[in-house]
From TrEMBL:
It comes from the Bacteria. This is Methylcrotonyl-CoA carboxylase carboxyl transferase subunit. GO terms for biological process: L-leucine catabolic process. GO terms for molecular function: methylcrotonoyl-CoA carboxylase activity; transferase activity.
Length: 543
């Protein structure tokens, strides 16, 4: 049987996917093979091994923040995955959030991005009313950067506030102390519903033996100070001790095996059906060239069940596709940027990827309808921004854009965002960027996120730089100007990268497009644990 040669686009997509695989493999090693070996020598499992042992066999684990801190803290030796593994998984059949410190990375110390990632995991648990499991193994705050992690609202201390808030909300929290647990970090497991500890390797105290000696002159070893025997038999701080990691994780499984069922939001689901069109064809129908037009309908046909959807106002506001469909059986409302050039009934040409007044107006109404019908929203971004110019301004583009943002921001149904290609300027906002609380937000390897495109930004920044040099009396040659443009462009293009965004948790991760359906399905399943108690109210709508 003759095999079809890949197209140029498919070949480039495979190159991007291989880069994703390579980065993933590196990140999953944490602090490296030698550090993993040292944990094993202590009789400990690594963070990822603990999660694999804890979660149900053959179940999915949706990692959140895999590339957090990627390329950051290089002067400190790096901090892969921000030194903590987080995500949504299944334990004894129960969907939950799992947070596992990675002791192979700086002994699990907390960097600024570690705090941000932990808070993101708690946010996922709180929004979706999911139980959360903490597998604690951390040396505490990374002291050289304490000023960037300690006192502010979204810093280290916020997690304990969240512990207390989750408890009051009835969200189950279970913690296992499987290594170090020191200083302020000691409050996290002890503010959980149940705290267990691994004998000999787990320890918990407000101050270790060295600090105790320095502070009050007492000489005591760490095991006596805060080991499993001390806290299970003397202080009562922890509930039960276990001989090793496996026994401790088995105990967590037994806890989750006996949890009662909670309320549901009631999102509609039917038997899942695969798309009628081959999902792998996404690698060909979606162009890696970010300026090339394409038909977003061809993407939808490879994402939705049976390649079947009902489009809302198909002949109006054509630069945005609004449609109801099913993804893995779940009913969804889709808002997707159309990237091909379209023609209005009046004969006007509209650029693909741009939000015009008519498309913004249509999207606002569609979002309201989905809220009325309790249908989760999925945003597929490939957006250059809103239309500009005198015609757009005179037509009220700001007013119509505000209407769309208002409806989206006030939505009470869960929102899920995927950045397929461009995500520029206010278009990122209107299409439910990170600032608008999507339950999950992921990028494809083809994504680019910034205020404007690389070419436009670089030329603008060059003009500013050249003007500043001229004001100071410096005249630069055409050759120097070209070199300056290259430097600006290279730096800006690096910041456009989806990995740059993922490193800073502007997105939850970078994924193979074939993972999109699974993530939407798991996201809605998670959201279905949180009944909608808030009434949809858009306030004052600009008309």
């Amino acid at each position: 049987m003759e095999t079809k040669s890949p197209t140029v686009n498919e070949a480039e997509f495979q190159r991007l996917l291989q880069h994703l695989v390579n980065k993933t493999e590196t990140v999953r090693l944490g602090g490296g093979k030698s550090r993993i070996a040292k944990e094993h020598e202590k009789g400990k499992l690594t963070a990822r091994e603990r999660i694999a042992y804890l979660t149900d066999a053959d179940s999915e684990f949706l990692e959140i923040g895999q590339f957090a801190a990627d390329g950051m803290y290089e002067e400190e030796g790096g901090c892969p995955s921000a030194g903590v593994v987080t995500g949504i998984g299944y334990v004894s059949g129960r969907m939950c959030v799992i947070v596992a410190n990675d002791a192979t990375v700086k002994a699990g110390a907390w960097f600024p991005m570690t705090a941000k990632k932990n808070l993101r995991a708690q946010e996922v648990a709180m929004e979706n009313r999911l139980p959360i499991i903490y597998l604690v193994d951390s040396a505490g705050v990374f002291l050289p950067m304490q000023n960037e992690i300690f006192p502010d609202k979204e810093h280290f201390g916020r997690q304990f506030r969240n512990n207390a808030r989750m408890s009051s909300m009835g969200i189950i929290q279970v913690a296992a102390i499987m290594g170090s647990c020191v200083a302020g970090g000691a409050y996290l497991p002890i503010m959980s519903d149940e705290a267990m500890i691994v004998d000999k390797t787990g320890s918990i105290f407000l101050a270790g033996s060295y600090l105790v000696k320095a502070a009050i002159g007492e000489v005591v070893d760490n095991e006596t100070l805060g080991g499993a025997t001390t806290h299970c038999e003397i202080s009562g701080v922890t509930d039960n001790k276990y001989a090793n990691d496996q026994e401790c994780l088995d105990a967590i499984k037994k806890i989750f095996d006996k949890i009662g069922a909670g309320e549901k939001a009631g999102f509609d689901r039917k038997e899942p059906v695969a798309p009628a069109k081959n999902v792998a064809e996404l690698y060909d129908v979606f162009p890696t060239d970010r300026v090339k037009p394409y038909d977003m309908n061809e993407v939808l046909a490879r994402l939705v069940d049976n390649s079947d959807w009902e489009e809302y106002k198909a002949d109006y506001g054509k630069t945005l596709i609004c449609a109801t469909a099913r993804i893995d059986g779940w009913a969804v409302g889709i808002i997707a940027n159309q990237r091909k050039i379209v023609k209005t009934k009046k004969g006007e040409m509209q650029m693909g990827g741009v939000i015009y007044s008519d498309s913004a107006d249509k999207a606002a109404r569609f979002i309201m309808n989905c809220n009325q019908r309790k249908i989760p929203l999925v945003f597929l971004q490939d957006v250059s921004g809103f239309m500009v110019g005198s015609k757009a301004e005179h037509g009220g583009i700001i007013k119509d854009g505000a209407k769309m943002v208002n409806a989206m921001a006030n939505s009470v149904v869960p929102k899920f965002t995927f950045i397929l290609g461009n995500s520029y300027g206010a278009g990122n906002y209107a299409m439910c960027g990170k600032a608008y609380d999507p339950r999950l937000i992921f990028s494809w390897p083809t994504a680019q996120m910034a205020v404007m495109s690389g070419a436009s930004a670089a030329k603008t920044l060059l003009q500013i730089k050249v003007s500043a040099l001229q004001k100071s009396g410096n005249v630069i040659s055409a050759e120097e100007e070209n070199q300056l443009l290259k430097e600006i462009t290279d730096k800006y293009n690096e910041e456009l990268s989806p990995y740059y965004a993922a490193a800073r948790l502007w997105v939850d991760g970078v994924i193979d497009p074939l993972e999109t359906r699974k993530i939407i399905s798991m996201g809605i399943e998670a959201a279905n644990h949180a009944p909608i108690n808030e009434r949809f109210n858009v306030g004052v709508i600009q008309t």
